[in-house]
Amino acid sequence: MSVNLIEVANSDDGNAYGGNANYTDANDIVVLDNGGTRIRIGHIRSGVLCEEFAIHSSQLLCVPNAREVLVELIRNYAQQYDLNLKAAILGIPALLDRENDIISHCNNIPQLQGRGLRAFLAEELHCDVLLEQDIMLQLLGEWKAGAARQQNSVFGVYFGTGIGAAYLLNGDPVNPLVQDIQAGHFPIMAEGKICKCGNTDCVEAYASGHTLTGLAVQAACPVEKLFEYRFEDRWKARLHDELSQFILYQAYVLATVCTMFNPGLLIVGGGIPLMAGYPRDELIEKTRNHLQKPHPATTLKISWASLPGIAPLHGALALLERHAGNSSSITQVNRLS
Ligand SMILES: [Zn+2]
To answer: Which of 1, 12, 153, 253 sits between 20 and 30 A of 286, alpha carbons compared?
Structure first.
């Protein structure tokens, strides 16, 4: 009976939470970071962060029964590490309607779109489930334990398979004023290049991992070597020019979001800036060149993401703490009424 009462209270709070409250002894958290290319699964056991992640291809989820595959991935992982699950936290590369448990704009894994994923996972896994936009989960991690600590206004841009962005104000990932910022999908050119979202000429079509994959094919070069080969004498001048343009378009993204939102701190992350030979200084210089002088061109604080890999674990802790705070205040309101 007590379990039922608590479950009712959870569903009443109207946010992205649910599951089995019968977890008195459960103290472990599984964190699934679902990017456009890879799924990384890690855990937090009684507050201690894991050091290694299980890696799978995101293609595993590009199937009609993607939800069932997700359940199996998490269930198998929990069994492998003998976890007693209190919660599962998932970063999803999509837009989330937390209140109605709806996922949309999941361009790389459209099979996850639709209603009811959180509720389904909670019921199948018998634990609480929280979904968060993948970039926001990373940014929350930086805010809790990394380069964005003590920062009330942080804009994160992550260059990976696509271009992910999130704006975190006062550590609140669900601030409705700055939700669903799709910084990869503003148009910049008039060449008619198709974006993964279906539109043409989104900046993501010119400045993301998709772009690099295309360049690597054209140049018959391993994609991970592109920036190293750029400087080799034998390499063609054309690729050098293409990659210079690529960095310029990435700088356009950073300059645009900073011009519009004027954040206290800009965090730049994702897999592309971590590639061998990636010209970080060039990106920052080009970004500042396109900002208004003198402010914010010279004053904008820019940091690289400092917790690649473990940021989603810290983000998961921040999310759970935030939710715990919300739940207690909601319970209080319910009692008063
Ligand atoms: Zn687009």
So the answer is: 153
